[in-house]
Each structure stands twice: as structure tokens, then as C-alpha cells.
Amino acid sequence: xxxxxxxxxxxxxxxxxxxxxxxxxxxxxxxxxxxxxxxxxxxxxxxxxxxxxxxxxxxxxxxxxxxxxxxxxxxxxxxxxxxxxxxxxxxxxxxxxxxxxxxxxxxxxx
Amino acid sequence: xxxxxxxxxxxxxxxxxxxxxxxxxxxxxxxxxxxxxxxxxxxxxxxxxxxxxxxxxxxxxxxxxxxxxxxxxxxxxxxxxxxxxxxxxxxxxxxxxxxxxxxxxxxxxxxxxxxxxxxxxxxxxxxxxxxxxxxxxxxxxxxxxxxxxxxxxxxxxxxxxxxxxxxxxxxxxxxxxxxxxxxxxxxxxxxxxxxxxxxxxxxxxxxxxxxxxxxxxxxxxxxxxxxxxxxxxxxxxxxxxxxxxxxxxxxxxxxxxxxxxxxxxxxxxxxxxxxxxxxxxxxx
Amino acid sequence: xxxxxxxxxxxxxxxxxxxxxxxxxxxxxxxxxxxxxxxxxxxxxxxxxxxxxxxxxxxxxxxxxxxxxxxxxxxxxxxxxxxxxxxxxxxxxxxxxxxxxxxxxxxxxxxxxxxxxxxxxxxxxxxxxxxxxxxxxxxxxxxxxxxxxxxxxxxxxxxxxxxxxxxxxxxxxxxxxxxxxxxxxxxxxxxxxxxxxxxxxxxxxxxxxxxxxxxxxxxxxxxxxxxxxxxxxxxxxxxxxxxxxxxxxxxxxxxxxxxxxxxxxxxxxxxxxxxxxxxxxxxxxxxxxxx
Lengths: 110, 284, 291
Fold this sequence. Notes:
The structure holds three protein chains of three kinds.
Chain A: E1 2-7, E2 25-30, E3 35-40, H1 50-60, E4 65-68, H2 73-81, E5 85-88, H3 94-102, E6 107-108
Parallel strand pairs in A: 1-4, 4-5
Antiparallel strand pairs in A: 1-2, 2-3, 5-6
Chain B: E1 2-7, H1 14-27, E2 32-36, E3 50-65, H2 75-79, E4 85-87, E5 92-94, H3 104-108, E6 114-129, E7 134-140, H4 148-155, E8 164-168, H5 175-181, E9 186-191, H6 195-211, E10 214-222, H7 228-236, E11 240-245, H8 248-255, H9 260-263, H10 266-283
Parallel strand pairs in B: 1-8, 1-9, 2-7, 2-8, 9-10, 10-11
Antiparallel strand pairs in B: 3-6, 4-5, 6-7
Helix pairs in contact in B: 1-10, 4-5
Chain C: E1 3-8, H1 16-26, E2 31-34, H2 42-46, E3 49-64, H3 74-78, E4 84-87, E5 90-93, H4 103-107, E6 113-128, E7 131-138, H5 146-162, E8 167-171, H6 178-184, E9 189-194, H7 200-213, E10 218-223, H8 229-241, E11 245-250, H9 254-262, H10 272-288
Parallel strand pairs in C: 1-8, 1-9, 2-7, 2-8, 9-10, 10-11
Antiparallel strand pairs in C: 3-6, 4-5, 6-7
Helix pairs in contact in C: 5-6
């Protein structure tokens, strides 16, 4: 299963971003292989519609869950359709958030 | 003659001036058309007894996706510059309020699964006032992001053989204002004598200069205490066309939806003189 | 921990900036972020000295290469925004009307069109007597942008971290659209300013729903509460039903007009409105700063 985490920086030790679609990096982490891939958010500075673009990135990478801040209304609607679970990872490091999600300690938003 | 009445931000009395100008010029025997282009908050009609005779829808063409034909190839989502379509192997969805109605998605769909249907984003209403002023207004539906298309369509109804067309412009300096100002002969800028009014006035002046339109300024709620606006206009060589006094009777007439030129009749003559100044400026 | 407090309203003109400017004085050296990029006004009161200017490129627009143009007019046919004009034998792009949809670029048989980055505004990092101010100015004829607001907020957080300032106060964009959302997302506390007018309660409800969506705690301020006591009662009733805390009710006060004319914060003068604003700030400090 793959998880996407919105991050402030490109490493797994960086903090989970407190913005969803305007996070600087998206880290796609594969729980089975424990491999991660870092994607730079190329839509960061777009003026509108960044939420659906970020959801599209999650969909295109085949993730089953997202760890982030609370996404906006447009994004939530798309995430629901895409059947992607959303967890609140604010205030945690990316690595901490992943292990907490595995142990069921993260607050599920969707 | 086409005159746009505008202001840097809301609340300066732009509508008050546009409506009183229309009323006064009509009273002086001119044939007038008043168009309310402030489509997010069209208020001009409040000051008149308007009989509406015509209505017209303003539509955007929205994509309609045939989910049976869709192969989920994702080309439409990639081509859309506004992120209005999201596609996965499981679903395809449209975010209506992000859609600009540009037609690119139907253009790129390889299996022709996307057709289009009109969606009403606003409407235009036309009629005439009790005094005989030809009246029109654009109304943007609540929740729609931009009134530009409503304004564009409204302006197609400008009557060429009236003496004066007066446009009540949206506030600010963004794209709806630029749309309103296209092809206008004169911009009448309404401001109030405060540091905030002056700041916003400067921004508006920059815009009008860039668009190369003749302009003049009217100071509303003028009480003579704050002189910076006049000082600035003198420095910039922009004519101060008229002032309207800070006056309780005017404020009261506004809050009850009355034209102040009916309460303070001396303003009728002042508005007529204002128009003569505008005519002279546009002629040269 | 850094706290971000946003001041918002469902509609412009409710006194949001009046309140923000006063908080700038009461909060003892906060970072101020003016996110009302459409009509930025905070700098008029705070009188900043600009330290850094950054350009914001938030949109793309079509650009036509005249030397490649074969004058077929297909671009003009496919454009739904009247953004392609024809004058003196050549086609041209009306930049203000172009929405950057790419249709003309895709259909041009000569490859004469492309989408290029367009400068949509600027943002500034400034210094004032009361602390840093981050503000922005949207380009003339540009449309309001959540992206520019996001840049302002990012810069505000950066400055707060660098100077070890514990609080960012955000003068939010009015309304409930993308700019408003961008002003409140991931803040620690939101102050909603409302007015007892015909549309006041309606506007309040819409913004409250938006804040609730983001699960951010909030409090309500009723400005000029005594101009219409009936509408004020309606707002109070709604807040009770929704368990929303009313932080304070600011009376209509002539001193506010004086302060505005002098370009000073209301709290620089002794008045009833000023007293109430001080009380509101004390409450906000207790709630938001200690959470």
C-alpha cells in the first residue's frame, strides 16, 4: 500500500506540511517495500485550482492514503470519489506520521 | 457619449453618483441609458422605479461527460488549465466552479465523450425608469467566480443613438473593471476624502492612464477637512470635476433608496455642468 | 510555537482592517500579513518601509509570435473570451481578457502561439514601528489569487521564524472563495467580523461554515452592533445555537471616522470602540495564544 505525505522538505525527516495542495513536496511512501519517492509540487504557485491538481497527483501515483493538513472543499470531494483515506499529520515528522498511521494513532479526517 | 462611473473600492458612493447623474441629465432633456455593470452587487435599480420588459440569460458552456464512452485516458484533465476535471481509473469528475467554459476538454477527448451544455451564470435585465431613462443591469449568480462575461454581454446592449450611456462600474482595478472600461469615452472617478480613499484613487488612476481614457474626479462626502486628495490631483494634473458635500440629508436619502438630487435640487444643475465639462474634455 | 491568527469576514467593508490595525498595536510586535490583496489597506495605517520586493507569477497567458502568424484567424474562432483581436492587418492578444486556457495554442496550425508566464502581482516584506508587515499588490486588471495570498503567508511565517516572533496576525481576504480559504487554512485561530445589516447574518453563516470545514477554532466580533439592535440579536441567537463564542460587540463610534481620516489605529484614541477592541484582544490572547 502506498501513502502520500505532504511535506515541508524533501526528506523523510522533514515536517508534515500544514498546507495540503500548497505543500512544497509530496512524498510517496510504499509501506511494503519501505521505499519513498519525492515529488516536487510544480503547481505550488498556481493561482487557482491547486487542490484538485494535488489529488490528481495522489491518484496518478496510486496511493491509498494521504497524510496532511485538512484539505479544502474541492479536494475533499475528489479524495472521497478517489477513495483515498485522509489523516491529520500536522506537527509531526514525515517518518513519525507514517509509523503512527500504521499503529492507528493518527486522527482520520476522511 | 459613454461615461463610466467608478471608484477604487466599494462604499465611496459610486452608485449614488451614477444614478443622480442619470436622473439630472434626463431631467435636463437628454436621452439617457443607465447600465449597472456592478454585477456582483447591482444596486442602481433601488433608486428608481424600474419597469422591466426584457430578460436575457448569460451562459457558460460546461462540459458534459458521457461516462459510458469515457476511457479514463486522462487527456482532458491534463489539458485543462484550471484543474476543473479529475480522472482516475475509477472515476471522472468535474468541478463546475473551477471550469471557465473554454472548451479545451472536449477538443482533446479522443473518443468524443465530452459534449457541452449551457449553464446560467447570471442574467441581464432591461427596462425603463419612471422618468423614462433606459435601464439595464447585469446580475451574477451567487457563487460564480467572475462577472466578466456578464459585463461583456451587458455592454453589447449599449444603445448607440441615445445622448449619454452611463455605466455604473464594479469597484476596484481587477478584470471586471477593465472589461467595463473598454471603448468608454470618459471615466468619472468617485472618491472620498480619507487616506484610504486617496490610496485606492491612485490605483484607479494608474489603471485609467494605462488604458488611455480621459478622466476626472468627483469627491463625495466632502467636508473640507482632508485636503490631500485635491493636492494630489493638482500635482498629477487631473481635473477635480465636482464635489458633493458631507450632508446628513444626503446620507438619509441614500439609506431610504432616494435620489439626493430630489432632496437637494441644486445638484441637478451641478450634474448638468459636470456633464458639460466632460463633453468639453472629450471633444478636445 | 508559532500562532497564526486570521481576521476575516463574509463580505468586505465590515471593519476587518480597522480591527487588524488595532491588533498590530496591541499584540506587541507581531508579524502582520495583509492578505486582502485586492484592496490592501493595512499599510496605510502601519506605514511600512519596504525591505524586499518579490514578483508573483501566478498565471499564464497566450503570446503571439507575429513572424510565425499566418493570419488564418483560427485562434480568434476558438477563443471564448474575446481575447484575440484583429487590427491593422494583424491579430493580437488582449491580455486582460486572456484566461490562459490554451485553446488557441492547441489549434494554431503555425505554432505561432504559446502560453507564457504572466506577472500577476508583487509582494513585499516590510518593517513598521510595530513589527514586520508582509503585504502585496495585485497587478492592474488581474484577478484575485489564492496563490499570491499563499506567498504572503509563507513569507510571514519565514520572517516570524527568523526574528523569533511568536504570532502572525492575518488580515484575511473577504468572502468565502479561494482567497478567503487561502487566508484561513492552517491558522490557529480565526476571528470573524460581522455587521448587523440586512445581509450580515447571511454572510456570517457562509464564512462560519468555511472555517468549520478546516476545523479551526473561532470567535465572532459584531461591529457597529448598535446601528441595528434587531439584526444584532439575530446574530447573537445564531452564535448561541452554533455554540460560537462572541468575543465582543463594538459600538458605532465617531472616533473610528477620526482615526480613519488620520490613518491611525482606533486604539490610538480613547473611546468606547477602542475599549472594546482592547477587551477583544485580551480574550484572543487568552484563547489563541495559550491553546
